[in-house]
Amino acid sequence: MRKIGIQEIEDIALGAALLGAGGGGDPYIGKLVAISAVQACGPVTLLDPEEVPDDALLVPIAMMGAPTVLMEKATGGDEYRVLYETVSAFFGRPVFAFMPMEAGGVNSMLPIAAAARLGLPLVDCDGMGRAFPELQMVTFTIGGASATPMALVDEKGNSTIFRTVTNKWTEELARAVTMACGGSVSISLYPMDGKMMKSYGVHGIITRSETLGSAIRRVKEAADQTPEEAFLSITGGFRLFRGKIGDVRREVRGGFNFGKVVLEGIGEYRGKTGAVEFQNENLTASVEGELLATTPDLICLVDTETFIPVPTDALKYGKRVMVVGLPCFPLWRTPEGLALVGPRYFGVDTDYIPLEERCKGGRANV
Length: 366
Hints:
Helix content is 32%, strand content 27%. The chain is α+β, with helices and mostly antiparallel strands and 366 residues long. The chain starts with a strand and ends in an 8-residue tail after the last helix.
């Protein structure tokens, strides 16, 4: 058990933006929401998963919709209370703690804001270890957990609660309501007990985000490594490509950001072309048409000078970035995990090959 204050929020936002693999929403907007809540209500208590009773009622909090929409349509301020009261009334007992559903810019921050506003603790665990675009894409689905009852509320005060027959149906129905509400809403889903969280959650995700964020801020202080070497060592990442953004194609469709960024090689990659395709999160990375990484491994774009992550909604022509691959949480590499988030689910015509295998041969460096 420890406290999360403003400095911790700064580091968590930065680290989670990397783990978001390009998605999860704008970390700056989420950070402002969380800092405002902590300034008004005080620091948040962060619990280790093992500190949570097995029978405690836990509720993940998240934003659903296209991250670009949230930049223009902010939260209304009362959503967290509505979500808390809706779920507590459904189960007939109070929610014990909140937790994040994923690691990513805004969705790593909103649970902190909700915990601060309602005086609840936050659990150091999530259901992805990164960010994915659809609601059923969590480790708790592999464990047999239901996404519902799921509560949904928009900034105008409209709210509803879903009961669905499968987690995929939760995604389909909630996505339709999200679009009707303007493209972004606040949700609570996968209400679970402490036992389910301990068995299938990604433990220590908030702490990992904070550690990564702190290290990225200090990456140029390493005495015996270049900043890039220090960054790759800190993250355990693989350098896939380095280039200047030559083209960005994106569209909002069905509540998702779809697109592709084309990179013109710089440095040792001069004369080559790289590409990253995304659906909210980055799905594939290729160089000269050859795939070097696919979902569920993390594909991240970072600034070549500061190593600050660049989310998909912040990609701009001319920006120089390094494409980095990070191995995913091991449960995603199982047959059950790949059925949910493997490349074929997203329409990519290839079997999943672990990042470490694709990068053999010297094209990517640890």
